[in-house]
Automatic annotation (TrEMBL):
It comes from Sinosuthora webbiana. Residues 4-150 form the CREG-like beta-barrel domain. It is found in: Secreted. The keyword Signal applies. InterPro entries: CREG, CREG_beta-barrel, Split_barrel_FMN-bd. The keyword Secreted applies. Belongs to the CREG family. Keywords: Glycoprotein, Secreted, Signal. The gene is Creg2. Pfam families: CREG_beta-barrel. This is CREG2 protein. It comes from the Eukaryota. One of its GO terms (cellular component) is extracellular space. Its main location: secreted.
Length: 150
């Protein structure tokens, strides 16, 4: 219940989020850039609230993050029950949104097994993604939290 419960619910139940970075390449260098990424905050039975990502350096978002790790992650209530049950568009302000801000870092070796369990338990298909893309795990070290819950 309450704002903290809403934030925890969104972190646990969203399977994707919108990541915003500062572009680090070409003509758009320094401009805001955003992309949707799959995420998991832990295995289904062990939610941590810390978002983990399975990423490739071929993704422009990751290129940005490797040069400047500051990012924001927005998690909409699109997968929640309130908006669906009340037939409210997920972009309606009455549908909650959680934005986490902080540094995106490579998962250290001692946490990689947990990151694998977190991501693969919620997104089994990623195991089949092409190995030649040099996938690795990142997580967000959360510094600020903003919840829109009207």
């Amino acid at each position: 219940p309450g704002r903290a419960g809403t934030a925890r619910f969104l972190a646990q139940h969203n399977t994707w989020g919108f990541v915003a970075t500062r572009a680090a390449r070409g003509k758009i260098q320094g401009m805001p850039y955003g992309n949707c990424l799959l995420l998991s905050d832990g295995p289904v039975n062990n939610s941590t609230g810390i978002p983990f990502f399975y990423v490739t350096p071929k993704d422009n978002t990751v290129t940005d993050l490797l040069k400047n790790p500051m990012a924001s992650l927005t998690l909409p209530e699109a997968d929640g029950n309130f908006c669906r049950k009340n037939v409210i568009d997920p972009e309606d302000p009455r549908c909650s949104r959680l934005t986490l801000m902080g540094q995106m870092v490579t998962v250290p070796p001692e946490e990689v097994e947990f990151a694998k369990q977190a991501m693969f338990s919620r997104h089994p298909v990623v195991r089949k993604w092409p190995r030649s893309y040099e996938w690795f795990f990142m997580k967000m070290n959360i510094e600020h939290i903003w919840l829109q819950s009207w």
